[in-house]
Amino acid sequence: MAEPTIPQKTPYNIELEAGDYWWCSCGRSANQPFCDGSHKGTDFEPVKFTVAEKAKFWLCGCKHSADQPFCDGSHNNLP
Ligand code: FES
Ligand code: FES
Predict the structure, then answer these.
(1) Distance from the CA of 36 to the center of ligand 2, in angstroms?
(2) Which of 14, 31, 33, 47 has the fewest CB atoms within 10 Å, i.e. is most exposed?
(3) Which ligand is located closest to the Cα atom of residue 31?
(4) Which ligand has the minimum distance to the alpha carbon of residue 75?
(5) 29-51 burial code (b ≥16 CB/10 A, e <16)
(6) pLDDT in tens, 34-43
(7) How many domains does the chain have?
(8) Domain span including residue 68
């Protein structure tokens, strides 16, 4: 399993409108925490999620969460 790039070792606290989003799992996007297509040629695919109504989220920035696209605290276990 390929290792993702780590843009940051903390989550992105972000307010999102209702709609569909694609979270970047590879860590290579220049538009974190969202996919910008830079995963092309890697083993990674973006993770689609839907927001039902406007709310705040903690989206994983370290790309090691077991609950993608959300932060599950796994960033605390990174070296
Ligand atoms: Fe990272 Fe698309 S750019 S998953
Ligand atoms: Fe990735 Fe918290 S930022 S698990």
Answers:
(1) 20
(2) 31
(3) 1
(4) 2
(5) beebbbbeebbeeeebebbeeee
(6) 999 999 999 9
(7) 1
(8) 12-77
Query: What size, in residues, is the chain?
Result: 79
Looking at the chain, the number of H-run helices and the number of E-run strands are 0, 4
Q: Which residues line ligand 2 (CB under 6 A)?
A: 10-11, 60-62, 64-65, 71-75
Q: What angle do CA 55, 58, 60 make, to 5 degrees?
A: 140
Query: Tens digit of pLDDT for each residue in 4-63?
Result: 999 999 999 999 999 999 999 999 999 999 999 999 999 999 999 999 999 999 999 999
Is residue 27 in some structural domain?
yes
**Which amino acid does the sequence have at 60?**
C
Q: Are strands 19-23 and 47-51 parallel, antiparallel or unpaired?
A: antiparallel
Residue 2 lies in a domain: no
